[in-house]
Every structure is written in C-alpha cells, then in structure tokens.
Write a structure and sequence with these properties.
alpha/beta, 3 domains, 362 residues, 14 helices, globular, Serine Threonine Protein Phosphatase 5, Tetratricopeptide repeat
Length: 362
C-alpha cells in the first residue's frame, strides 16, 4: 500500500510538481512523472484542481505539456460518455488479424526476454503501478507483435492497476492497436533503451520499429492462456440505509471535498454490474477501500448490485457524483468538475479535441 496518501499529502504532491522537468523527462521510466494517477483515477482529486494548483506556481507556457496530458484523460472520458459500451470494442478501424483473444503467457510470467518489460511487469504485480510509456510498449508487444486481442490483454492490465480507469485503459489499448486511430503504435529495443536505464542488445526486438508489424511472431510470445481472473469483493459493512441521508461513491468518485459538510451516511459501492465484468485484484480492491477511507471519514462499503443495497429506494436523501458507471443508480446527481466543460461531444482523435480546446481558449 505504498501509494496510500492523506488528502493533504496528495495536495503537497501536486504542489511539488515541476512541469518544466516533467516535459523534459516524462517519457523516461525514471523521469519526473507526477505519480498522481491513482488519486486522479479514483476521483480523490480533480483535473482542474491539479491544473490550477500548478498554474499558481508556473506559467501556462511552462505547464502546457502537463496540462495537455491531463486533457488526454478528459478526452478519454468524453469518448466514454459518447460511445458508452462502444469503447470496449473496435471503435473506428476493426481488425480481423488477431491470432487469439487470450493472454500472452510470457507477459503474464514476466518472461518476455526484454529486461525492462519483465521488470515493469514484476513491479506492476508488486505495486499496482506502471509507467505510461511502458504501458504503450507492453500493449504494442501484446497486440501488434504477439497478435493478442487488445480487449483481453487490457482486462489483464486493468485487473492489476491501482489507477485503473476503464476509459483511459481500454482506449489507450485501442490507440496502440490501431482500432481507434488508423496507425498501429510500434516499439523496438532501441526505443526501450532510449527511455530506460537498461541497455539491452541482440533481442527479438532489435530491429526497425515498422518491421515489428510484419515479422513472424517470436517463439517466445506464441504461448497464450485464457483470462481466468474473478472479482473477490470486499466485505459489506453498510447496513440498511432506509430513512437516512446518503452519499454514494463509486471507486472513481472518492472526492473528499464533495458534500463534505453534509451530515450523511457515506457508502462506497462496488457495483457487481461492473466488477463482475471487469474484476480487479485483491490488492487493487484493498487500495480502493483504504484510500477511500483515508480521505473520507466513516466511509462504509457495499458490495453487490445497487438494487440490493438495503433501503436504497427508501432513503431520506440520496446523492451521488455523476459517473458512467452509476447511470442506473437512483438519487440526485451532482456534476463532476471538468477541465474544459465547454468542449463536449465525440472527437475522432485527441488532436481534433485539442484543437477545439485551443479554439475555445483563443
């Protein structure tokens, strides 16, 4: 649980960001990344909050790349709002050349033969975190070299990520696989060596990047196995909420500032409608619960379908922060804070979305 933070510690972490250093080194595995993703993904802090605290210390020009990366998150969320379940299938450019829709065994076992990749996979298992650049490399190896379907491999990565966000995860896999944009992302050994401290030579990735799209599948990556992970739910601590004032939280809306002065029962819901479909590991589950309880006093837990929460249709008042995963819940919906609330709708690429953002700002 090395990523557990108090709310003040998270705010201090934001204030320690140097966006100039971030821009210079963010693609390096040991670069000046923010490591705020567990708290952004879980809704503990908001995108505008990060932007505004950074801009209190640095200029817009100095902060541009960091703000643009925050905008990627909002872009993916917008796509999810518009396409709903469409983000879990080929979005724009269907592919029919998959070798299988299972998990690449060498990746699961951290035994790809690429030292950096094996190290980041083991670190994922240990900490629940993986550098964003490494996620792209892994996805390229799995989908564009080994031929594994992006959705199944995406479920595996999501299962282990403490910052797991359905939109950011699966749309990133689609971006790499070339099903949301027209070009597949490629990786080779030179690229990995350039952005890590490891200098490995003469591997099956020691070739030109574009060649990786047409080369035979390396023997190391041919073995595969089904996705067999299931959700182990936390024990429910919430008893009946009948007659109470209630604030309901999803694992992605754990904002301690939301209605913090309200006298209400606060209940974190692990909705079986989503977690049966997209399970998370026991470590991720425990991080969600403990991080939520760290920043939200007296947070209760409920596991199951929302309709089965005792008394949910007989509360005095019922509030929730609007999110894609709670559209079927009862209650009054409060809007989430947005980075660019005036830029809505579906854009086929981040570039088109960003141009719309810049146009609004001008």
């Amino acid at each position: 649980m090395s990523y557990l933070r108090s709310y003040q510690e998270i705010l201090d972490q934001i204030d320690s960001i140097n966006p100039v250093e971030y821009q210079k080194s963010r693609n390096h595995l040991e670069g000046a990344v923010t490591k705020l993703s567990p708290y952004i993904s879980r809704g503990v802090i908001t995108l505008p909050q990060v932007r505004d605290r950074v801009l209190a210390q640095y200029t817009t020009e100095q902060s541009e790349k960091l703000i643009q990366e925050l905008a990627w998150r909002e872009y993916f969320q917008n796509v999810w709002w518009e396409k709903v379940d469409g983000i879990f299938s080929d979005l724009r450019f269907p592919r029919d050349n998959w070798q299988h829709d299972e998990l690449v065994t060498a990746i699961l076992n951290a035994d790809t033969g690429i030292t950096v990749m094996d190290d980041v996979i083991r670190n994922l298992y240990d900490t629940g975190y993986m550098h964003n650049h490494a996620r792209l490399w892994l996805a390229a190896i799995a989908t564009n070299i080994a031929g594994a379907h992006w959705h199944t491999m995406g479920k595996w990565l999501y299962y282990h990520l403490i910052d797991g966000d359905l939109a950011s995860n699966f749309l990133s896999w689609q971006w790499v696989a070339g099903t949301s944009v027209s070009k597949q992302y490629t990786v080779n050994q030179d690229l990995i060596n350039a952005w890590s401290s490891e200098q490995q030579d003469d591997t099956w990735l020691s070739l030109e990047r574009e060649v990786t799209l047409t080369m035979p599948i390396p023997e190391h990556l041919t073995m595969h196995e089904p996705f067999n992970f299931v959700m182990e739910y936390p024990v429910s601590t919430a008893e009946t909420v009948s007659g109470a004032d209630v604030c309901l939280y999803t694992p992605w809306t754990l904002n301690p500032e939301w209605r913090k002065d309200d006298e209400c029962r606060r209940v974190l819901v692990f909705d079986a409608l989503w977690f049966d479909r997209y399970p998370v590991s026991p470590d991720v589950r425990d991080f969600i619960v403990r991080q939520g309880q760290t920043v939200i006093p007296n947070l209760e837990v409920y596991s199951g379908y929302i309709d089965d929460l005792p008394g949910v249709y007989n509360t005095n008042q019922l509030h929730l922060l609007n999110h894609q995963t709670n559209q079927h819940w009862p209650g009054h919906r409060d809007a989430l804070e947005r980075l660019y609330p005036s830029v809505t709708g579906y854009y086929q690429s981040f570039f088109a979305y960003w141009q719309a953002v810049l146009k609004q700002a001008s």
